[in-house]
Amino acid sequence: MSEVWAVKHRPLLGDIVGHQHVVEFLSSSDSPASFPHLLFHGPAGVGKTTMAHAFADYTERPIHIFNASSKATRGIEFIETDISPIARSGIDSIILLDEADQITKPAQMALKGVLENCSCIFILTCNNMTGLIEPLVSRCQPFAFEPITNDDSYLALLNITAKENLVTPPTYVLDTIVHTNEGDLRAMVNGLQAYFSVFKAQGDKTALAFVEKMAGTFTTKGFMQHINDKDFTAALKFLEKADDIRSTLNIIMQFTISKGANLAIIGHVVTAYRDLQFGMPEPIVRAGFCRNMVQSAPLLV
């Protein structure tokens, strides 16, 4: 399977579309060592993690990435065992903590203490700041990330198309991708990659139908919600909204890699591909995939 475009084409700080107030702040200081800890909050897919990576590249700092959405990364033990040693190592680096609002309140208090005495810059991300305690928020410089505008979305998609040396898709294809993903640039890039993948194999009409289906009804995030609720029936019904099971498995794989390459999910996707290759009927493959996913839940996505 090809490299995920949302990761492959992460922009440098000066090339980021949208969020210019954040870009200007991060690139304006004459003394990067004096940077405060940062808090990026806003909807999924609007560029919070991309901005953190771009800032790390811009300041030539190593970046350590953690995601607090799993049970193992929510408690005090995680802060003391994984975060604190890096933060207090004396090495000038960046610690990116995605979905920081999922950390327990006692662990957030412990994290507050780490922020007060460390040698690195923390970048916390979350969808909503209401899950964060005020003492932690007050020790960071917050930045709100709004949904990407349509103009910026078109620009980003056209830039990626050019970098991939592909012919620009018809306007109606870009319109479909942009207007059905509601400011979520990551979802748009995934949609663009899916379009070209299906287009290459089955032609424009099928590719557009697939993009419309994926954007309008099936979403990986919605599917994973049913999986993590351990609701097999709802998950299977949701998966049945996707007409092309192979392309849908590819999108789930892309989503998984963008969230940290969970090995359980990757294994289930590979198993489903294998079953399809051996000629197993699609309804059985769909049911088996959902069963395996539910049995592995909750999953880190």
Tally of separate domains: 2
Estimate the strand proportion: 5-15%
How many helices does DSSP assign? 15
Low-confidence stretches: none
In angstroms, what is the radius of gyration? Answer: 20 Å
Shape: globular
What is the arithmetic mean of pLDDT?
86
Topology pattern, helix = H, strand = E: HHEHEHEHEHEHHHHHHHHH
Question: Can you walk through the features of this model?
Answer:
The protein is α/β, with parallel strands linked by helices and 301 residues long. The protein has two domains: 19-144, Rossmann fold; 150-296, no CATH class. 56% of the residues lie in helices and 9% in strands. The chain is built from 15 helices and five strands. A five-stranded parallel beta sheet has the order 2-3-4-1-5, with helices on both faces. Helix 13 (245-258) packs antiparallel against helix 14. The chain is globular and about 60 Å long. The model has no long low-confidence stretch (mean pLDDT 86).
Explain the layout of strands and helices.
Layout: H1 5-8, H2 20-28, E1 37-41, H3 48-59, E2 63-67, H4 76-87, E3 94-98, H5 105-116, E4 121-126, H6 134-137, E5 140-144, H7 150-163, H8 171-179, H9 185-202, H10 204-216, H11 220-228, H12 232-239, H13 245-258, H14 263-277, H15 282-296
Parallel strand pairs: 1-4, 1-5, 2-3, 3-4
List keywords for this structure.
single chain; 301 residues; alpha/beta; Rossmann fold; 2 domains; 5-stranded parallel beta sheet; 15 helices; 5 strands; 56% helix; globular
Summarize the structure.
The chain is built from 15 helices and five strands.
